Amino acid sequence: MKAKKATLNRRTRLILAAAAAAAVLAAVALLFVLPRASDKPYSSLPLAVHFADVGQGDGIVVLCGDTAIVIDGGEERGWEAMRQTLTENRVERIACYVASHPHADHISNAAKLFASYEVESLMTTAFTDLNRPDSQFYLDMMEAAKQEENCRVIEAGGGDTFEFGQLKLEVFSPLSQTADYNDMSLVIRMTYKNVSFLFTGDASQNAERQITDSGAEIRSTVLKVGHHGGEDATGEMFLESVAPQYAVISCGFRNEYGHPHSEVLDRLKANGVKILRTDELGTVSLYSDGRQIFSKELDEQAEQ
Ligand SMILES: [Zn+2]
After folding, report:
1. Are β-strands 118-119 and 152-156 bridged in parallel, bridged antiparallel, or unpaired?
2. What's the 10 CA to ligand 1 centre distance in angstroms?
């Protein structure tokens, strides 16, 4: 009897231990499977703007209702970050792919994007025969758009406006033709209700001056800092006219250009702008209800 009791106890202990181990395993598995509330506290808000961590370059995914807009997409090594951002957000159809300007760190993945998703329109700068790009990735992008069924090609410039779903896009630049592709960047303000984002590509202070000289009202809630935070962009007068609350800098970790430059960071800080950097934070996601901007990254900055 005594021996049997001891056996039972041992068996009970074994069962309990196994059950405890199973419970721990299940809890650990759940941590990976279930989205934690703290990870995506704002994802139910109507507007999301993801600055994907594509390394040195720009790759932006805008989501508003069932409208998706993609701006650029980094170099080839940035594809995985773009694909992941689009997959996580269940994007299958893109209302507009915006090629800010024809440099490799912006449009290298354009043809791949067309091959992987349904793209309804391509927005590119209106070039002339004198400065039309002839690089392979630009030609591949144009060919991909041509092959895509019912894809509208929009050649845009300063003064144009477009609407995609509830999003209004105002193009401020380019205002003139140049052989400098950075200054052929589409500078676009995207507005949703009372919040706005200014996407600047790699436009330099020359283009910025043309915009401010034109008298355009360019005030925006969020500034995608021009040229990855390079000193040749984000001039004082332009920054004062945009008067952003938040600035996002998209650049590679310890990139060879030293982006972002300290002068730009100093100018932003002097203007009281909160800065979010993809080289420090990885993909930066901003959300809005149409009144204010929310993000996990901003919450974490506020806690520090
Ligand atoms: Zn660039």
Report:
1. unpaired
2. 67
